[in-house]
């Protein structure tokens, strides 16, 4: 038997007053920067988003909180929902947009896929398309600049307005060389796209920092990035498009994968009315517990998102209208 190894190290006491350092540092800020002063603290007093005002709150069921342990999309953070086509990504985005509007937030949709349906948003999701700001371009640089212009104009009118930015989608956005027929060097496309996506994300981060409420110490901008995934040679699972920086700067990444279509027979013809998709937590830097649900199945229909385990029959699926023909 070797000598016993000490597993605990004694903490040496500092000869200075930690609380006094914090108070003196905070006193260097003026009244208009009281919120900034709160950013100076000790480790025990650091707080994570927890109040309703810190989020675009998801109220349409329990799956988001079960997956992320968060009330919704946190202000001051970037959240990414990724997956293959037709896996429920844009449905999540629409619901969050409608939730944000109901909670008094301004919503800016960067519709890079050019597929936004005002009819579905209004009549099925419950959103207000008349008060939705839309950027209609798939060019990365132009889109990010247009979103920024909307944010500046809104903050000029009301500095305290809270804003949700939705980029749908990163994978459908093209870089500046792809947008120019005279300069299409395909060998450079992936690198150029990654650099421009990183530039756009950093621009959004700058907006969050610029419009941080200095008096109240509150974040006022939240960003939701919808993205596609692909299978890379030599890698396990799916990888998000847009380069590594988008992934690194995302506080939360939820990956969706469609498991099956939901169909019914009506008038002797088969119709698709929804899908079952699996939601997987790939990254969550805001979770502080020891364990959490890694994945769960969801039902996506025209009216939104539900936990699959809560759906006992067709009559409980949102958007379902039973017919005499049945399934």
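Sequence proposed for the structure above (327 residues):
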């Amino acid at each position: 038997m070797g000598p016993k190894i000490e597993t605990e190290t004694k903490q040496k006491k500092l000869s200075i007053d930690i609380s006094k350092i914090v108070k003196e540092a905070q006193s260097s800020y003026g009244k208009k920067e009281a919120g900034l002063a709160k950013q100076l603290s000790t480790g025990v007093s650091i707080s994570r988003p927890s109040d309703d005002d810190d989020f675009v709150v998801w109220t349409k069921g329990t799956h988001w909180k079960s997956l992320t342990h968060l009330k919704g999309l946190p202000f001051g953070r970037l959240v990414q929902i990724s997956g293959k086509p037709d896996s429920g990504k844009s449905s999540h985005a629409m619901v969050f947009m409608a939730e944000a509007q109901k909670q008094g937030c301004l919503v800016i949709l960067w519709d890079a896929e050019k597929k936004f349906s005002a009819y579905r948003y209004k009549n099925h999701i419950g959103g207000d398309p008349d008060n939705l700001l839309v950027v209609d371009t798939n060019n990365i640089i132009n889109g990010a600049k247009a979103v920024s212009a909307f944010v500046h104009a809104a903050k000029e009118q009301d500095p305290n307005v809270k804003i949700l930015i939705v980029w749908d989608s990163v994978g459908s956005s093209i870089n500046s060389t792809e947008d120019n027929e005279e300069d299409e060097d395909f060998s450079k496309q992936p690198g150029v796209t990654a650099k421009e996506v990183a530039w756009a994300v950093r621009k959004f981060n700058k907006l969050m920092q610029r419009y941080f409420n200095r008096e109240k110490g509150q974040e006022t901008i939240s960003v939701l990035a919808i993205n596609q995934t692909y299978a890379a040679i030599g890698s396990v699972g799916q990888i998000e498009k847009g380069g590594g920086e988008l992934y690194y700067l995302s506080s939360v990444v939820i990956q969706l994968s469609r498991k099956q279509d939901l169909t019914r027979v009506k008038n002797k013809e088969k119709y698709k009315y929804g899908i079952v998709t699996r939601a997987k937590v790939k990254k969550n830097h805001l979770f502080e517990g020891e364990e959490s649900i890694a994945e769960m199945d969801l039902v996506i229909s025209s009216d939104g998102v539900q936990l699959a385990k809560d759906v006992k029959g067709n009559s409980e699926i949102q958007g379902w209208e039973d017919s005499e023909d049945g399934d």
